[in-house]
């Protein structure tokens, strides 16, 4: 049986990870979770947010699924999520955004996926003060041809594999002529290898407008790190919120699946969190592993559950606790 590293994380992480484990067990998914701890609780015990055994297990099993991890503010900590992506060169942050049938939001029929470059841009952490009085600060945005090429290629390959006809490249090259200009130029070059797929170019501010007016017209979106981060929260809001938004961090030989949301300290430990985002991340992980029969079985059970308003958690307008929602999904399985 294939092993998958499970990192529950902190905040609502342990509650939603429990839900994932119970649902996978009920569906008899042929994987074994290799669980390791990271986050605030383990920091208090060991002085390290991510102990060495977490890295060992990620490297050993090559596939991991993780809950959110709180980044302590103002104590010199770098985000664990950003560090993991960098360390393992997980350059593609893939975030599918899909309307859930029966779940009424302002929009219907949204089915798009965001490919966010995950290792470059403004997230490289190179910032400094320009003056001794600290009244002027600078952040460096790094864009490389190689980094741009591989993320755009991933987006086009995804479109090709799923029979989609359009890839939208999001940029601000009218202002950031060198960095975003390089990304856009590289995208244009990559696109020439995919004659059956149209490449659409949109400036990021216009993209925001288009997404809140006509989101159903997008299929595959590819963009740089910061724009991708912001657009994916915006898109999560279009289909029902952070509680249902899954994600994956993919490299060439290692993958970490995780929900888009954070550790939600305001509801942690209260059995209120929606576990769907992590469950959908798990479903996408099963597809990635070639276990699509199990993925569809769980997805169908989830859809049957959520289609009934009384079978939803509070963030989706329902009243179910995390544990009760989990039981409903298991009943459908
Ligand atoms: P957040 O995503 O944790 O919460 C934003 C809002 O959405 C809160 O009102 C929260 O209750 C709600 N929410 C989030 N997930 C939910 C769920 N599954 N069910 C129901 N409601 C949900 O964002 P915030 O507050 O900005 O970040 C909190 C902490 O999480 C920070 O320390 C941040 O660094 C960390 N974080 C970690 C991430 C990760 O590990 N991948 C990603 C984003 C943030």
Automatic annotation (TrEMBL):
Its EC number is 1.1.1.41. Pfam families: Iso_dh. The keyword Ribosomal protein does not apply. The keyword Oxidoreductase applies. Residues 3-329 form the Isopropylmalate dehydrogenase-like domain. One of its GO terms (molecular function) is isocitrate dehydrogenase (NAD+) activity. Keywords: Oxidoreductase. PANTHER family: DECARBOXYLATING DEHYDROGENASES-ISOCITRATE, ISOPROPYLMALATE, TARTRATE, ISOCITRATE DEHYDROGENASE [NAD] SUBUNIT ALPHA, MITOCHONDRIAL. Belongs to the isocitrate and isopropylmalate dehydrogenases family. This is Isocitrate dehydrogenase (NAD+). It comes from Streptococcus moroccensis.
């Amino acid at each position: 049986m294939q092993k998958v590293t499970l990192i529950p994380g902190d905040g609502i992480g342990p509650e939603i990870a429990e839900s994932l484990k119970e649902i996978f067990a009920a569906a008899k998914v042929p994987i074994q979770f290799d669980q390791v701890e990271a986050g605030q609780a383990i920091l208090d015990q060991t002085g390290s947010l991510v102990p060495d055994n977490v890295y060992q297990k990620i490297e050993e099993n090559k596939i991991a699924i993780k809950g959110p991890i709180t980044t302590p503010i103002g104590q010199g900590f770098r985000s664990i999520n950003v560090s993991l992506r960098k360390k393992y060169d997980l350059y593609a942050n893939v975030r599918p955004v899909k309307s859930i049938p029966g779940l009424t939001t302002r929009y219907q029929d949204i089915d798009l996926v965001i490919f966010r470059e995950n290792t470059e841009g403004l997230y490289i952490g190179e910032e400094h003060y320009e003056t001794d009085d600290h009244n002027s600060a600078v952040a460096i945005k790094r864009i490389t041809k190689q980094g741009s090429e591989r993320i755009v290629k991933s987006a086009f390959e995804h479109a090709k594999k799923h029979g989609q006809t359009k890839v939208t490249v999001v940029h601000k090259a009218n202002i950031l002529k060198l960095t975003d200009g390089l990304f856009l130029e590289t995208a244009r070059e990559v696109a020439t290898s995919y004659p059956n797929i149209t490449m659409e170019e949109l400036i990021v501010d216009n993209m925001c407008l288009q997404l809140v007016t006509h989101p159903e017209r997008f299929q595959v979106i590819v963009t740089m790190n910061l724009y991708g981060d912001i657009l994916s929260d915006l898109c999560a809001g279009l289909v029902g919120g952070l509680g249902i938004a899954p994600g994956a961090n993919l490299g060439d030989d290692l993958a970490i699946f995780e929900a888009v949301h954070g550790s939600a300290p305001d509801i942690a430990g209260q059995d209120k969190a929606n576990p769907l985002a992590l469950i959908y991340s798990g479903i996408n992980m099963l597809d990635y592993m070639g276990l699509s029969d199990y993925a569809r079985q769980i997805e169908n059970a989830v859809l049957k559950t959520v289609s009934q308003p009384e079978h939803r958690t509070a963030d989706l307008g329902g009243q179910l606790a995390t544990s009760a929602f989990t039981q409903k999904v298991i009943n459908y399985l």
